[in-house]
């Protein structure tokens, strides 16, 4: 019985291996992957349909209406305006002193809201994280979360009742011999009232994300800090705050993006003609100009200007965060 002989290469020569045929990634149908994923997880993908429809109908389709900022719109006429007027309405609001007054008011209220309403949830979350009694922690969380679930109408009503001339706050001031203060009629008090009510309504709810971020911090880091002799304040500064920094940066970028969109509903419910000098913001000015005065093209031009400023702010904040901190939203 003969056995097949196998030729061996002579010394000094190398046998070149035969390359195996490789299937190109382009030759494989890429659409089969997402089709299989869609068939497998169609229940999860179906949950995305309603949010996508919401953003399409209420966010993206209305953008088509921005064209009336450059066209003369008349109620009852074409939804895209009657005739092209170019930058006429832009020049109108840029030369309108009333617009610049409400623009300054918007910057003031937006800046004060960002300065006070952004760090307070962080401080509250750090304090709750240090509470060891679970019952006390749950009670404080429940009490601080409750205002978020109240309607803005109810929050505005409570604020107006508390700060009325014959309200509880003025009664307490009367015990100390102070004359009643007209909080809701004096322009210089409106910013304090608005920011205070905003803190009361949003501070507790804002702690939820930070408390969730605190649970992701490795306990070994705290143990190593204690071994190195760090006290509680040093552990918060060197371990806790860096651990929740990505969450802080993300929320800060989102808040900066809505910097110009100061709460329309609350301002509309709290202000009155006496407080217009400090309370009137771009959104309420748009409401009175567009809806009450039927100047839709003029209001659309101002709204487009506000949207461009918001886009520039959120883009700049994202780029600055990426270059300085290394964390960004996109």
Please characterize this protein's 3D structure.
The protein has 330 residues and is mostly helical. It has 17 helices and two strands. A two-stranded antiparallel ribbon has the order 1-2. α13 (245-257) runs antiparallel to α17 and α16 (282-292) runs antiparallel to α17.
SS-derived structural category = mainly alpha
* Strand order, largest beta sheet: 1-2
Taking the sheet with the most strands, its summary is:
2 strands, antiparallel
Give the radius of gyration. Answer: 30 Å
Number of strands: 2
Approximate shape: globular
Mean pLDDT: 85
Our measurement of the CA-to-CA distance between the termini, rounded to an integer number of angstroms, reads 73 Å
pLDDT < 50 runs, ≥5 residues: 1-15, 23-27
Range of strand content: under 5%
User: From N to C, what is the helix and strand string?
Assistant: HHHEEHHHHHHHHHHHHHH
Helix content: 55-70%
Structure annotation, total helices:
17
């Amino acid at each position: 019985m003969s056995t097949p002989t196998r030729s061996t290469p002579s010394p000094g020569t190398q046998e070149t291996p035969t390359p195996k045929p490789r299937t190109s990634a382009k030759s494989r149908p890429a659409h089969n992957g997402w089709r299989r994923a869609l068939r497998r997880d169609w229940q999860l993908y179906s949950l995305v349909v309603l949010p996508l429809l919401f953003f399409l109908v209420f966010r993206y389709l209305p953008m088509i209406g921005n064209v009336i900022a450059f066209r003369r719109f008349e109620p009852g006429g074409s939804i895209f305006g009657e005739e092209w007027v170019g930058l006429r309405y832009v020049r109108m609001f840029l030369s309108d002193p009333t617009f610049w007054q409400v623009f300054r008011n918007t910057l003031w209220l937006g800046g004060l809201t960002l300065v006070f309403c952004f760090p307070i949830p962080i401080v509250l979350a750090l304090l709750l994280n240090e509470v060891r009694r679970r019952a006390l922690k749950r009670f404080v969380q429940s009490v601080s979360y409750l205002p978020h679930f109240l309607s803005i109408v109810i929050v505005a009503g409570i604020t107006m009742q508390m700060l009325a001339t014959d309200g509880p706050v003025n009664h307490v001031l009367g015990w100390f011999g102070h004359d009643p203060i007209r909080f809701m009629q004096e322009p210089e008090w409106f910013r304090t009232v608005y920011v205070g009510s905003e803190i009361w309504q949003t501070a507790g709810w804002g702690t939820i994300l930070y408390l969730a971020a605190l649970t992701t911090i490795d306990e070994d880091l705290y143990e190593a800090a204690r071994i190195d002799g760090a006290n509680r304040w040093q552990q918060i500064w060197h371990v806790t705050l860096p651990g929740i920094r990505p969450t802080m940066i993300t929320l800060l970028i989102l808040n900066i993006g809505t910097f110009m969109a100061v709460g329309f509903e609350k301002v509309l419910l709290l202000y009155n003609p006496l407080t217009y000098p400090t309370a009137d913001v771009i959104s309420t000015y748009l409401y009175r100009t567009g809806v009450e005065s039927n100047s839709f093209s003029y209001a659309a031009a101002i709204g487009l200007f506000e949207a461009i400023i918001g886009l520039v702010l959120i883009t700049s904040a994202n780029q600055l965060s990426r270059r300085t901190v290394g964390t960004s939203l996109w």
